[in-house]
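Tokens as discussed.
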């Protein structure tokens, strides 16, 4: 056989036994039970198997089952009948004035202990602010300048924490600023 005949035979073989008979993976499609599946071609032809949810039986109409009785009857208060007062036998008494209630004085939140703590933190922040001002005039390296900026940041965060009455955070941030300044002052 020559090459042309062999090539023609191969092309015919491919067309006759090619893609149409290739096995295709079956797909499963789920549909809701509210609508019946639409009739389609056979699953073997399309490769799609449609599965519908089983329909639930409708509830039977009938007498409702009795509700279970509560184990204990709810407690109710006894009714009291009020009879109107006889105007002839009982004279109307003037209502007694209510006693005056003493209103307590308003104090700052937290009392004197917190005020003393606030004053201590404010004094500490003022000392740190003075140390920062002194260091701004000094000739500092780039690293020392960064530490000085960090100390300013800690001081401003400390002031904000003090404004929200978070004394512990304010003191911690002020201490951080003070430590950074101590490092700068040693150099």
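Sequence:
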């Amino acid at each position: 056989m020559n090459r042309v005949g062999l090539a023609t035979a191969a092309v015919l073989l491919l067309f006759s036994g090619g893609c149409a008979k290739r096995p295709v993976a079956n797909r499963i499609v789920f549909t809701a039970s509210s609508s019946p599946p639409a009739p389609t071609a056979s699953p073997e032809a399309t490769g799609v198997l449609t599965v519908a949810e089983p329909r639930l039986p409708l509830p039977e109409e009938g007498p409702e089952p009795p509700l279970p009785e509560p184990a204990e009857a709810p407690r109710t208060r006894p009714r009291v009948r009020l009879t109107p007062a006889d105007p002839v036998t009982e004279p109307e008494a003037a209502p007694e004035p209510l006693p005056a209630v003493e209103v307590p004085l308003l104090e700052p939140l937290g009392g004197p202990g917190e005020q003393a703590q606030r004053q201590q933190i404010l004094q500490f922040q003022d000392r740190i602010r003075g140390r920062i001002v002194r260091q701004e005039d000094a000739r500092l390296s780039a690293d020392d300048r960064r530490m000085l900026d960090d100390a300013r940041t800690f001081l401003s965060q400390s002031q904000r924490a003090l404004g929200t009455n978070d004394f512990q955070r304010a003191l911690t941030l002020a201490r951080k600023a003070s430590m950074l300044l101590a490092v700068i002052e040693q150099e």
